[in-house]
What does this fold into?
Amino acid sequence: MAAHWHVLGAGAIGCLFATALARSGCTATLLLRERCGKSSRSVLVQRDGAITEVHTPVSATGDSGPITHLLVTTKAYDVRGAVGAVAHRLNSDTRLLLLVNGMGLIEELHNDFPNLDIYNSTTTEGAYRIAPLHICHAGTGLTRIGKPGQTRPALWFDQWSRAMSSCVWDANIDSALWLKLAINCAINPLTAVHGCRNGDLARRPELAMEVCRLCDEIAAISRAAGYMSTAAGLEQAVTDVIAGTANNRSSMLQDVQNRHRTEIDYITGYLLAVARRHGIEAPHNKSLFERVHKLEP
Ligand code: KPL
It folds into this structure.
């Protein structure tokens, strides 16, 4: 039987996955903070100029009724509070799938909810929000899902591989998450403090040099933490992402420009915590970490 997914975080990625799961035969309910007086809302998904309307069940976080499968796509700093808001609906059978930026949240969730069965994921699907519950699916990408130490896909994974055009079970999900974290550490804070698009990090020589310095530090921390392939291929991976997303404003730059809190604590903050554990100095990353915090409201 197809699983019933509840989705916490009705932003671009939450709406994208909720509608994809619904179209593949699952029930996917969007969890909203406030009661809206309706049992479903229409979610608009724009793709190549065409708009698809998907009638999606909604439920307020404060409602009752058990949640068996929970997808969390909030901002990193909202995860604990958001999961806390539905804690009364979770039980020891609940599977929680985390799809957020940064690292360190699994540990925090295990502390808060020791009985939860938690999975992790990362995606390169491109989506952005046009208006509330109206998103643009800008580009397809690869979604990796896994749980450290679990080589066989979870029973519910089958449905995900049908829902998304490209979705794999990754027994080394931590390595995939670390690589994404390393790339984000090299790009996001720098674009946020300089107020520039990703492509400027390659176009402006002084920023390109700073990217190299950041990559050197991140590679050293990666090696110490045992992520050898990230250490070896980081500079090339960062160059490729900068070229592939040259016209993008990074998520951290958008947060700064919108006067929102950023995810720096879960990106560079996590990297610096790992560096400290291994006795590594990372002055360039540390300075950016502090500068981004000063830009936050
Ligand atoms: O993941 C990103 C982000 O902005 O958070 C990158 C890859 C840097 C693309 O902008």
